[in-house]
Write a structure and sequence with these properties.
single chain; alpha+beta; 4-stranded antiparallel sheet; rod-shaped
């Protein structure tokens, strides 16, 4: 009985990887960008909530400086945030604090936080290179 000859297969894995490598890189970059953007969105939501909570608790709904400080402290772990306290009147962080009427007619502190992410790697048609997140929180005084 003759022995079957086995062909050379040493380069098959390398060829498959070479063909799929661009897709792996594409997926990695997309996941990396999405993680930064998700973190920025969560940080923006937390910053608005904390600033509104403090202004409502202290009964100072229009205290712009304190709202700015608390929002900035909450955004410290996000990228594109200055290491020193900004004025909060220009991007990447804009914070406004106002007094409004809540749904029940009682006074409420309203804080708006706008945060612009850092320019990351854009994926045309899927992920832009930069986003601006905008969150508004109202808390009863």
């Amino acid at each position: 009985m003759p022995r079957l000859r086995r062909g050379r297969r040493g380069g098959q894995s390398a060829v498959e990887f070479a063909l799929l490598a661009p897709w792996y890189i594409f997926l990695f970059i997309g996941a990396f960008d999405w993680g930064f953007f998700a973190h920025g969105l969560i940080s923006t939501e937390n910053a608005a909530r904390v600033a509104a909570m403090y202004n409502a608790w202290k009964n100072t709904p229009t205290d712009q400086n304190t709202a700015c400080r608390y929002a900035w402290m909450e955004l410290q772990t996000a990228v594109n945030v200055p290491s020193t306290l900004p004025s909060c009147s220009a991007l990447p962080i804009i914070v406004t604090a106002t007094q409004v009427n809540g749904p029940d007619g009682a006074g409420a502190a309203q804080v708006t936080v706008e945060y612009q992410t850092q320019q990351l790697i854009p994926i045309p048609g899927l992920i832009n290179g930069q986003y601006t997140f905008y969150r508004v929180v109202k808390m009863r005084i």
